[in-house]
Amino acid sequence: MYRTDVATFGVIGCGVIGAGWAARALGRGLDVVAWDLDPHAADKTREAIERAWPAVRKLGIYPGADPDRLRFVGSIDEVGATADFVQESVPENLALKQTLLAQVDAVTPPDVIIATSTSGLLMSELAVNCVAQDRMLVGHPFNPVYLLPLCEVVGGRATSPEAIAAAMEVYDFLDMHPLKVRHEIDGHLADRLQEALWREILHIVQDGHATTGELDDSIIYGPGLRWAAMGTNLVYHLAGGAGGMRHLLDQFGPSLKLPWTKLEAPELTDEIVDALVTGTAEQAAGRTVEELERLRDDYLIAVMKALRAVDIGAGRVFANREARRFDHGAVRWREGEDVGAPLALYRCQVEPEWVDYNDHMTEAAFLTAFGWASDALFRYIGDDEGYRAAENSFYTVESHINYRKEALLDDPLRFTTQILGLDDKRLHFYHEMYNEDTDELLCTTEQMLVHVDTVAARSTPIMPGPRKALEAIWEVHRDMPRPKDVGRIMEVPE
Ligand SMILES: NC(=O)c1ccc[n+]([C@@H]2O[C@H](COP(=O)([O-])OP(=O)(O)OC[C@H]3O[C@@H](n4cnc5c(N)ncnc54)[C@H](O)[C@@H]3O)[C@@H](O)[C@H]2O)c1
Fold first, then answer.
1. How many domains does the chain have?
2. Which atom belonging to ligand 1 lies closest to the Cα atom of 44?
């Protein structure tokens, strides 16, 4: 009923958040159509996307992703006519959003969801002037939208459950963590929590008990490190020791009655404003907002990668994105179809993390790239997430690499794969890596893999599906000439 197959993402209002949505959608390989009242918005948005793009690249872009797929248009009507999903991100002002959403609603087909990025306004109030209120909902992201996965999804009184479900699907497709907020409450969930902390900060600064920097230190060396993995509640459960949350409440319950928090916001006097502005300027220590944004982006990516290793929260979203990116457009073997000799299953560009200070691809990165080429072979033969979930996998037991030419940041790479040998449990293959533009051979690798039962941690026969595909490939590849790099021995001749 509502479109979930999104090819063109519509953005209305292109400030910090709108440009962030555009960068996220572009990184996902979508077309983006955008509109903003500001006559300079097209340039500003392109610049914002250019600044965000290195981080989006580090997060991992999808095949075909390109900042040039952003199209700025001259009216809301054009966004409504072309977008498969519309995300409004104009300033947080009820009357402005009410008028604008009604305009968007009037020009957008009824099966297109219209979402607002509002930080805390209620959908039921925002949609009062709209006709098709069933498809209007809140999709509240977090800055930087192109990196942080959380998106709170909240409906108004007239929003249909199907629209909520469809929006959750679209945000998931954008590699976010859509969090359905069950009741329409002021500030949704996360901003309600953030606001409580923020109010306490204002009080403490006003009373002169701490500077903004000291308050930030009180978070970044302690609670902040815990929050990314366990939030507040699970952390407190652990704080209760073996007795968990119940013991914690017995111990600290009485302090809830002590005046530890004020919660009612203080007046924003000139003194508080000055203290906040000078305090944060001192913390910035001469670094521009742009420099700090880069630092923040690098830090967020590093945290997500660390969480990926322990399969928690944003790390899991990061891992899913990686799997999806490599599955996207993956070729599958089908019985009776021609088999390439050699196979050409994988292409990529040299990623920012693959290069050293000279912009040259590092030795380890060559192996990483070959790893992804092997992954493409596995997917081709049916060794995918399902196969691995059933406790089957191939483990590499020997690799030989021959480096021939360097590769530089952003170089387009293409890979070919030749099977050199196969039996019940063993797979011997060879990859070549080429620069796609110059067609130069850059590197080759020969690898021996053993099929394993991943739980028992011992070798087992390859399962029938992948085995059949491998036999079909081997049938074609066994007559190919043996590449001269295969079986080489490393030695300095006497
Ligand atoms: N900044 C954040 O951290 C954050 C986080 C989550 C959600 N949000 C929400 O996102 C929305 C946008 O916030 P922002 O921080 O990007 O604001 P912003 O001021 O950076 O950007 C607002 C953009 O809207 C444009 N605009 C103003 N009036 C317009 C109109 N009538 N029609 C079209 N465009 C118009 C402006 O030119 C500007 O480009 C708000 O609802 C805000 O609550 C903000």
1. 3
2. 39
Task: Specify whether the backbone of 106 is left (phi greater than 0), alpha (psi in -120 to 50) or beta.
Answer: alpha
Minimal-distance CA residue to ligand 1 atom 12? 89
Start-end of H helices in 140-288: 161-173, 190-206, 212-220, 223-230, 233-239, 244-252, 270-284
SS3 489: coil
197 and 183: one domain? no
For residue 96 and ligand 1, the question of a CB distance below 6 A is answered with yes
Question: Ligand 1: distance of its center to the CA of 9 in Å?
Answer: 17
Question: Are 160 and 250 members of one domain?
Answer: no
**Same domain for 221 and 176:** no
Predicted pLDDT of residue 261: 87
The predicted-structure confidence for 92-105, as pLDDT tens digits, reads as follows 999 999 999 999 99
Strands 412-422 and 343-349: antiparallel
Q: What is the pTM of this model?
A: 0.85
- Whether the Cβ atoms of residue 59 and residue 318 lie closer than 8 Å to each other: yes
Cβ neighbours of residue 477 closer than 8 Å, sequence gap 6 or more: 339, 341, 342, 418, 419, 420
Find how far residue 89's CA is from the centre of its chain: 20
Q: Which domain holds residue 73?
A: 8-188
Q: Is the pLDDT of residue 168 over 90?
A: yes
